[in-house]
Amino acid sequence: MAKPNYNFEKRQRDIAKQKKQEEKRLKKLARKADGSESDADSADAEPDEDAGDDVTTTDSGTNDTTPAT
User: Fold this and answer.
1) Per-block mean pLDDT, blocks of 10 residues, the chain (69 long)
2) What is the DSSP letter of 52?
3) Backbone phi, psi, residue 59, to 5°
4) Is the overall model pTM greater than 0.70, yes or no?
């Protein structure tokens, strides 16, 4: 019976892990690039609707309808 080559198996796992991490990094980078472009386009196309509202958000996340001072 042949001896298992643990160094080869470990190297193959490491290569697969690096490949997966690189794919994940590229996917994140592409998603970030796509998201930033669409956000910039929508920000230019639509004016900010909440600019004139006097509603403030408290630390607890609830809306306070009193005017901000």
Assistant:
1) 94 98 96 74 54 59 61
2) G
3) -60, -30
4) no
